[in-house]
């Protein structure tokens, strides 16, 4: 190695600056760079070619004092005075050379950063100028993952330390720096070589794992990435059914059509962790805002029928069904289609009510008059407090009275039937029976 004498004061000053600035640079080299967080040095403090399962080697060595593992022993090179062997150097006359680290089987690393500290020696000029940083998993096929050219003006008086970062999502067992040029020396040297990896994502979760949306709705999904200081927290968002639901690069979901879709977020740092949310898209529920009947009043004669129509708004309401009810079924009945049947004289209110939860309603007042084609109105009062009214002819009245007298004498059937209009169009005939035992009294009114 080249030798040169310098005075002791200069040596002391250089040692002080080297220790101070070297420590400062080392502290800056670990931890964070910009917004990226890195691990500590992945290479253990080497005390030989193999330490803690990690093996180092080189293409050539200057001598037994400047061998490969000396670039990883963390004993920083002291200011040059005579021969000092705390660094690695290529054989004299060979500028090109490589320095390699083998992390071992099953201990592959995803290196994203390395640091180089130059050898401390005046007029050294042996620090790397141009090189490639390479990775391999078989020690034969090498991939260039970083390259540098014209790295000039190393401050060899203090053993300058420089750091280099790059993108790498692949884990390799072997790494090497392959030097192709230096500042002009007949050999190349490195005092210390460190390697770090960006801290990877260990877990990712979404704020929702299932979600239900209506067509046209939007929903922002939020991802939680751990650890908080992971180097690359970027996620790739994807929908397995974009025809049903789409997702943009920020996790914003848009419901497109009825169906289901799985929204998946995948880490981009090479850890390939995923988390997902199953989205069910439904038709939007449109509630009824108004209901109106086609008639507000109806006048009917006993036995007649009429049909009410209920119109709901808006026209595209999800559930347009209504329930029909009569306030007085003994006067007028109504079926599920809105058909009214007049039973007996009196008044009844027919109401249509929505069933979509809005509970809106509209009503029609029905006035029923007796059928004047008959002769009398027979009103039967029952023992339970109710009453029945029937518009009948004189012949029908005589028949009823004969039945009643016979039954009072214990003769004949225990019931009497009255013909009534069918309650709906699906029936052709209706007979209403009155039990003799239920009759308390009856009244006959003769029509004019």
Automatic annotation (TrEMBL):
<feature type="signal peptide">
    <location>
        <begin position="1"/>
        <end position="29"/>
    </location>
</feature>
<protein>
    <submittedName>
        <fullName>Ig domain protein group 2 domain protein</fullName>
    </submittedName>
</protein>
<dbReference type="Pfam" id="PF00754">
    <property type="entry name" value="F5_F8_type_C"/>
</dbReference>
<dbReference type="InterPro" id="IPR008979">
    <property type="entry name" value="Galactose-bd-like_sf"/>
</dbReference>
<dbReference type="InterPro" id="IPR008964">
    <property type="entry name" value="Invasin/intimin_cell_adhesion"/>
</dbReference>
<feature type="domain" description="F5/8 type C">
    <location>
        <begin position="37"/>
        <end position="198"/>
    </location>
</feature>
<dbReference type="Pfam" id="PF02368">
    <property type="entry name" value="Big_2"/>
</dbReference>
<dbReference type="InterPro" id="IPR003343">
    <property type="entry name" value="Big_2"/>
</dbReference>
<dbReference type="GO" id="GO:0016798">
    <property type="term" value="F:hydrolase activity, acting on glycosyl bonds"/>
</dbReference>
<keyword id="KW-0732">Signal</keyword>
<keyword id="KW-0326">Glycosidase</keyword>
<keyword id="KW-0378">Hydrolase</keyword>
<dbReference type="InterPro" id="IPR000421">
    <property type="entry name" value="FA58C"/>
</dbReference>
